[in-house]
Design goal:
alpha+beta, Aminopeptidase
């Protein structure tokens, strides 16, 4: 067998990003096989997304999650600044949680920065279970979870 080679992708260009994403499929496949070996026949994850659109159809907010192993992970959530503090974020979150429960999730988790949405998630029943200090420098990254109904 020949020597194994590595290639670093810092993804500074669109081409590097696309090339690395195409090759990353093998890593996800290998990880999936490992999970199935240890956990048995389970679904490896389902993407759950809820989008907020204005009357013209433009996306003005949304939430992107991944349901896996009885948990839903909230990857990102955003609402346009002009529409914040009007209940749209809470509605997006509630719809994602409802769909996650339908898919068999019993828990949810999310991470957010000290300058972002920690109070928002706490208002909606999430509790901090871990914090990374100085990430990024001068701030914190908080990890929160919630038991779903």
């Amino acid at each position: 067998m020949g020597e194994l080679a590595t290639k670093v992708y810092a993804c500074e260009t669109r081409q590097q990003l696309e090339e690395s994403e195409a090759l990353l499929g093998a890593v996800y496949e290998g990880l999936g096989e490992n999970i199935l070996e240890h956990c048995g026949p389970i679904e490896l994850g389902r993407i759950v997304r809820v989008l907020l659109r204005d009357p013209g159809g433009k996306v003005v907010g949304g939430i992107d999650g991944l349901a896996f192993g009885g948990w839903v992970y909230i990857k990102i959530m955003w609402v346009a600044p002009a529409l914040r503090n009007q209940g749209h974020g809470g509605r997006l979150l509630a719809q994602l949680e409802k769909e996650a429960v339908r898919l068999g999730c019993r828990n949810a988790h999310v991470d957010t920065y000290s300058f972002e949405a920690r109070p928002f998630y706490q208002k909606h029943g999430y509790e901090v279970f871990a914090t990374l200090d100085e990430f990024p420098p001068g701030h914190q990254k908080h990890f929160l979870r919630k038991r779903l109904a």
